[in-house]
Write a structure and sequence with these properties.
Function: Accepts electrons from ETF and reduces ubiquinone.
GO cellular component, one term: mitochondrial inner membrane
GO molecular function: 4 iron, 4 sulfur cluster binding; electron-transferring-flavoprotein dehydrogenase activity; metal ion binding
Largest sheet: 8 strands, mixed
Catalytic activity: a ubiquinone + reduced [electron-transfer flavoprotein] = a ubiquinol + oxidized [electron-transfer flavoprotein] + H(+)
Radius of gyration: 24 Å
Enzyme class: oxidoreductase
Distance between the termini: 30 Å
Strand content: 15-25%
Number of strands: 24
Length: about 600
């Protein structure tokens, strides 16, 4: 998918140039109606609406009920029980049920779980598929070259477990509730609250009963406020509240910005004779070119029916605006070495999610007055291993310990500074430091080949090299104008191994109330057509894995406009990351909207 300009593309460049001039002079319809862009204070429709919120007080509130959030909650209650202290811990999770929005491979290292709940096997944790065999393959277009998988190398997975992470999170939620944690699903945190001194006071949950045009419905209800001595943010990758915290407390003053990938995943039921429970297979190479970072995973799960999880990850630092991660994934499944696992089977689930790839260089300041960041919100992912669940859980446990050390009856706000020190002394930090240069090493003239060679060196040196590479420009800045790039001719889906986008989105179970302001907001409604369509030929329609964005003709026939199909959104956050104009801002939708992955 390298960008190039040939003689045959001159006509295309001319069309883009003419189109750009056309868009600069057209009129633009209003798209965004959300109050974060159009404040209610200046909207007469809200003049007589009661905006007072109910308030609840707690010791610790945790935003996000994933592996990190639940681990922090459990550890806090464990410490309180050990010391005989009263401690109220509340978890708020936007999914309608715990685990409902969780999407991961997932092949997990049980190291952190062993520390948190040593008797997890006896308690029935759903880790039912120990890894029995590893494969690592470099794919050519029609064949593949096996690569060694030896102890100490990133793709060596013996001792790990293939799981449905949503099931594991649901089980962690049960353990948390048994420990006395108050878990509230179907409640999204929409706003960070602050004390007069600037410290975090807690969070506010979202309002309900707002019409699509931004006006209050008759059944409008204000969200409530949760005040806490300490608020733990465990929102997952690219959390929308975390973005505000990073700016307010300058949390990236001494770190690089984050870089990301997008992971797409399907679950298949396959013929019993093809099923190999515990088989873990990873690939690099085809269908991506050497300049595009990415690879795949395929895991055979030990389920009542023969099941495999297959997925594809692409770094969001790609430069060609015509790349479609979804369509790369679909054509990948037609490779002979991949198709043999799926033929005769049936696809039963689909999903996608952004993931952190910045690693050690991109770890922000973790603690601030009144709160802290844990898990994927903070960026803990070992990119070469494609693993972050155990880091999420361990960081959560360390944060809980840092908070508990500062807990006292007369303390109104806790600043868990020791959490940062604990993290830097832990195996999370040392392991991330050891692989810090592998991901940025792919930014070289040889791309994949140079990056892979350096990765081998880094593994042999165990990260002891005295230098640290930088990631460079953020992902959105790496996109090149359409006139510099060649469109990609993707094959049509066959409906057997590959599928169209909308039938895939139907498998996510995603659902949003139609009559609410779109939660995919634009800072400027004119930018998509003027800039994204005019310069980059509308990349939103390709980097979104859910068909949320499309350009449609104006009713007048004079130009095009961006249409946002917010009801399709599966909360992957890719648009917020890759938008070349940085004009899209993802905010929490009303109610329990979003995907229903049910244990993917």
């Amino acid at each position: 998918m390298a960008c190039n300009v040939s003689l045959t593309s001159k006509l295309f460049q001319r069309v883009v140039s003419i189109t750009q001039r056309q868009y600069s002079s057209q009129s633009f319809p209003k798209i965004t109606t959300h109050y974060t862009v159009h404040p209610r204070e200046s909207d007469p429709r809200w003049k007589d609406i009661d905006m007072e919120r109910a308030v609840d007080e707690t010791d610790v509130v945790i935003v996000g009920g994933g592996p990190a959030g639940m681990s922090a909650a459990i550890r806090l209650r464990q410490l309180a029980a050990k010391e005989g202290k009263e401690l109220r811990v509340v978890v708020v999770e936007k999914a309608s049920e715990i685990g409902g929005h969780i999407l991961s491979g997932a092949c997990i290292d049980p190291k952190a779980l062993n520390e948190l709940i040593p008797d997890w096997k006896e308690k029935g944790a759903p880790l039912n598929t120990p890894v029995t065999k590893d494969r690592f393959v470099y794919l050519t277009e029609k064949s593949g070259i096996p690569l060694p998988v030896l102890p100490g190398l990133p793709m060596y997975n013996h001792g790990n477990y293939v799981v449905r992470l949503g099931h594991v999170v649901r089980w962690l939620g049960e353990q948390a509730e048994e420990a006395g944690v108050e878990v509230f699903s179907g409640i999204a945190a929409s706003e960070v609250l602050y004390n007069d001194d600037g410290s975090v006071k807690g969070i506010a949950t979202g309002d309900v009963g707002v019409a699509k045009d931004g006006s209050p419905k008759d059944q409008f209800e204000r969200g409530m406020e949760l005040h806490a001595k300490c608020t733990i943010f465990a929102e997952g990758c690219h959390g929308h509240l975390t973005k505000h915290l990073v700016k307010k407390f300058n949390l990236r003053e001494h770190s690089e910005g984050q870089t990301y990938g997008i992971g797409l995943k399907e679950v298949w039921e396959i013929p019993a004779e093809k099923h190999q429970p515990g088989l873990v297979e990873h690939t690099i190479g085809w269908p991506l070119d050497k300049a595009t970072y990415g690879g795949s995973f395929l895991y055979h799960l030990n389920e009542p029916t023969p099941t495999v999880a297959i997925g594809f990850v692409i770094g969001l630092d790609y430069s060609n605006p015509y790349v479609s991660p979804f369509r790369e994934f679909q054509r990948f499944k037609h490779h002979p070495l991949i198709a043999k696992h799926l033929e005769g089977g049936k696809r039963i689930a689909y999903g996608a999610r952004a993931l952190n790839e910045g690693g050690y260089q991109s770890i922000p300041k973790l603690a601030f007055p009144g709160g802290c960041l844990i898990g994927c919100t903070a960026g803990f992912l070992n990119v070469p291993k494609i693993k972050g669940v155990h880091y999420a859980m361990k960081s959560a446990m360390l944060a809980a310990e840092g908070i508990f050390e500062n807990l006292s009856e007369d303390a109104s706000t806790i600043y868990p500074q020791s959490y940062e020190e604990k993290l830097k002394s832990s195996w999370v930090y040392s392991e991330l430091k050891a692989v810090r240069n592998i991901r940025p090493a792919f930014h070289n003239p040889l791309g994949l080949y140079g990056g892979f060679a350096y990765g081998v060196f880094a593994c042999l040196s165990r990260g002891l090299e005295p230098w640290t590479f930088k990631h460079g420009d953020p992902d959105y800045k790496r996109l090149k104008p359409a006139k510099e790039c060649k469109p990609i001719d993707y094959p049509k889906p066959d409906g057997v191994l590959s599928f169209d986008l909308l039938s895939s989105v139907a498998l996510t179970g995603t659902n949003h109330e139609g009559d609410q302001p779109p939660h995919l907001t634009l800072k400027d409604d004119t930018i998509p057509v003027k800039n994204n369509l005019g310069i980059y030929d509308g990349p939103e329609g390709r980097f979104c894995p859910a068909g949320v964005y499309e350009y449609v003709p104006l009713e007048s026939g004079d130009g095009q406009r961006l249409q946002i199909n917010a009801q399709n959104c599966i909360h992957c956050k890719t648009c917020d990351i890759k938008d070349p104009s940085q004009n899209i801002n993802w905010v929490t939708p009303e109610g329990t909207g979003g995907p229903a992955y049910n244990g993917m």
